């Protein structure tokens, strides 16, 4: 189970368990990393009254999909001004569920259809549930559009499986502890790249999910030797080199990572954004942090990172 940020694509929580253990248990454990005023987007397989209550206990809010037939006949329903429905979920018997609804609660249910086949089955009724009860603060149409951002986690998985691991099908480790260690190394490496890209997005004033992960992965591996050189210097040199090999004459000699803000191609089927390369000045602290994270990853999981780039 993963807990990831929709914008920067950073994986901030990871739960690994045996095949026989339900993913619902991992989802509940990940909620310990959720803070106040966060909005948690979840799939229909995770959404339940007990999970929603757990989210609210953490001070966060939830927006999730409902399975077909779920909560269609709740009592005390009231239609709101934006077409959504305010409904009361009654407490459940503790013996009837592993995570029961201990206290009754109000939820808001939104039903909608999509008109674009790229977004789902045309004509099918989709239903969402949320703890954001005020339709003026969180209109139904905005929540519907927001929920589709949940699919960003599929891109996170693609970045890790397809690009970071170069489509390797299996892990090298043959023991449960070895697999766990190797997976943590893989996700730490992904986090290091996403930290760099988040910094680049702030500097360039762009949406972080529009930046190319593969460009960031390449640039961060190229920066390893630069980080080692910078960490061992006792005096300030008169010039420095950026990750692309261009000399930058400067008195301060700030390390530079190039092309880390290369905008990835648009996922739209109708248009493509041209790629561009800009330069981002990174502080020595960011360089050292990135190097330390990557060093840990390489120790934990040598075959999971592109060694051909690091040699």
Written overview of the protein:
Helix 5 (176-204) packs across helix 6, helix 5 packs antiparallel against helix 7 and helix 6 crosses helix 7 (284-300). This protein is α+β, with helices and mostly antiparallel strands and 311 residues long. It has two domains: 2-154, no CATH class; 177-310, no CATH class. It has helices at residues 23-30, 49-57, 140-147, 152-164, 176-204, 213-232, 284-300, 307-310, and strands at 2-4, 11-14, 39-42, 61-65, 78-79, 85-89, 105-113, 125-130, 239-241, 247-249, 256-258, 279-281. The protein has a six-stranded mixed β-sheet with strand order 3-4-8-7-6-5, with helices on both faces. Strands 1-2 form a two-stranded antiparallel sheet. It starts with a strand and ends with a helix. Helices cover 35% and strands 16% of the residues. It is globular.
